[in-house]
Design brief:
Blueprint (H helix, E strand, L loop, with lengths): L1 E8 L5 H8 L8 E6 L7 H4 L6 E5 L8 H18 L7 E5 L7 H9 L1 H4 L2 E11 L3 H7 L1 H8 L3 E5 L8 H11 L4 E5 L22 H10 L12 E7 L5 H15 L3 E8 L9 E6 L2 E2 L3 E2 L10 E7 L4 H22 L1
Parallel strand pairs: 1-4, 1-5, 2-3, 2-4, 5-6, 6-7
Antiparallel strand pairs: 8-13, 9-10, 9-13, 10-11, 10-12
Helix pairs in contact: 3-4, 4-9, 6-7, 10-11
Length: 335
Amino acid sequence: MIPVSVITGFLGSGKTTLLARLLRDPGMARTAVIINEFGEIPLDHDLIETSDESFVRLSNGCLCCNVRSDLTLTLGELAARRKAGSVPPFERVVIETSGLADPAPILQALMADGELNGVYALDGVITVVDALLGLNTLEQHETSRRQAALADRIVLTKSDLQGARPDAVAQRVGEVNSGARLLQAVRGDISPTLLFTGGSYGLSGKSADVSDWLAHEMHAHTHAHESDIASVSIVRDEPLHAVTLALLLCALAENCGADLLRMKGIVNVAEDPQRPAVIHGVQHVYHAPAWLPRWPSADRRTRLVLIGRKLRASWVRALIELLEQEVTRESARHG
């Protein structure tokens, strides 16, 4: 049986960072990864560098909304390709869910599908919780609480950042799920042996609500996200000046605040076109751009994904154009 692990966690909690670090560990060789993203353009698969891993991306919305078709078909096709030798002989599957995904329908599909049960075994659920913003996220978003309640292991991230409250977040997480093992990872650094056991998923130690959620999924046909949250995707062919990028991050922080739940992107910077800048932001917290040593694929366009409330793609595009025009004029004036 091939063990399947689910990595979940709310927007910006650090799932992709965790997965990227895990896949660099030799113990994670021969791992097939299914990545689901909430947004029109995929980014996570470009932000994770691997060697021998097989990557599959579900691109048509939230994985949990399509779990009865897309996920089961994907796992079935992966098993068939493994048997035929058209993909490396992977020995584990890791599913990274969208930050807005309720894991319950995913777990139900993995546990209830007869054909999958003959090939795969649900190993467990790993939920990533942000020690900086996690308290507010758990209070404001039911999805975040359900992600924590369903977990076998809960990984606290960002505990090294100024303002983080790991002890308070750990206490709140314990109230939601007292049976989960609580771990910490700084910048995604954690041993795979702490997360993947080769065991089986169980309901022991979890709240009674978990059993009810899983039972409900046997009869549910739809799954709704928080209705006021939307995704805005921006694709730009022309490079941006480094100053424009800095001004854009400041403008987003000032104008969007807590309504911008998640922002991430890969940016073609005019001053260094061979090395893309990777940007991340969660609500009012924006990290300094990280520079990749090279482009991860042939696609060298700037791609941004913003997830939150009251977002309009036209406003974001106009803001970028306005800032870039102003920077270009100033550069010409002083050049």
